[in-house]
Design brief:
single chain, mainly beta, nine-stranded antiparallel sheet
């Protein structure tokens, strides 16, 4: 989250299942809200995604996440285009073992680069905790 002239709120819960010590599959939903007061811009994104993680060696993960988003909002008080589009995140990261699970730090990039992507033309990152039951 960030607030000010440029506000960004992102909520993206996800749930997955580890099939074995090498593969995890899951999915989730997302909602992003962007507001830029300099341009009177307010944009919303709602999305669905699935993801897969592979753990080829200890402490390393590779990541793929196809997404489908809907975008709507306003720019300078006028409605912006209402779009549905896809993103494809590819990435890799580290796995840090903990007593009841692990912390995963992943760096990713949207390789499709649709002009409306909420991920921008930059490397993103996520930090998560995987619970072990």
């Amino acid at each position: 989250m960030s607030f000010g002239e440029y506000t960004n709120i992102n909520i993206a819960p996800q749930v997955g299942y580890s099939w074995n010590k090498y593969f995890t599959l899951g999915g989730g939903i997302s909602y992003n809200y962007y507001e830029d007061t300099r341009y009177d811009q307010k944009i919303n994104y709602a999305g669905l995604h699935i993801y897969g993680r592979a753990y080829p060696i200890d402490y390393l993960t590779v990541y793929v996440q196809p997404e489908l988003h809907r975008r709507w909002g306003s720019i300078r008080g006028y409605p912006s285009e209402d779009n549905v589009f896809a993103c494809l995140l590819l990435g890799a990261g580290a796995v840090i073992p903990m007593p009841k699970g692990n912390v995963t730090i992943t760096f990713y990039y949207d390789v499709l680069q649709n002009r409306y992507t909420p991920h921008g033309n930059k490397i993103g990152y996520s930090v998560g905790y995987n619970f072990r039951f």
